[in-house]
Amino acid sequence: MYNVNPYQQYQQNSIKSADRGKLTLILYENAVKFIKQATKFIEEGKLQEAHKAIIKSQEIIAYLSDTLNMDYEISNNLYSLYAYMNRRLIEANIKKDRVILAEVLALVSDLRETWQEAIRIAAPPVALGL
Q: Do 92 and 100 form a contact (C-beta atoms < 8 A)?
């Protein structure tokens, strides 16, 4: 028998039961987390760890790009933005540049906040106990 971290189990169950909107939000949140980690690792001189964190954020951005429904005009805009962010992450990784990471972090954070608001607006109203 192996020990399972209850928090990790909760996270896994949350992801498995999440709808597409919530999954996209989780992806944005993780991209933010990995970019912040990379920045911290660069500051600490842990360049291999920074590399790994940047790669994880690139993988998330690539996945978001790959799953776009190109039937919508906004998807074309997002595709271009994701491509730009990916190029900048590659450059940040090569140079280990915190300024570039801050730029991409701002873009991903804006997308995350926009997505949070879209989910909030689209959510069904909560019953008022009637």
A: yes
CA atoms within 13 A on the CB side of 11: 7
The alpha carbon of residue 79 and the mean position of all alpha carbons in its chain are separated, in whole angstroms, by 15
Whether the pTM exceeds 0.85: the reply is: no
d(CA 39, CA 113): 21
Q: What's the domain count of the chain?
A: 1
Cβ atoms of residues 87 and 54 within 8 Å: no
What Cα–Cα distance (Å) separates residue 82 from each residue in 1, 39, 48, 57, 123?
43, 20, 24, 11, 26
The number of helix segments (H) and strand segments (E) in the chain equals: 5, 0
Give per-residue pLDDT as tens, 65-103. Answer: 999 999 999 999 999 999 999 999 999 999 999 999 999
CATH code of 111's domain: 1.20.120.340
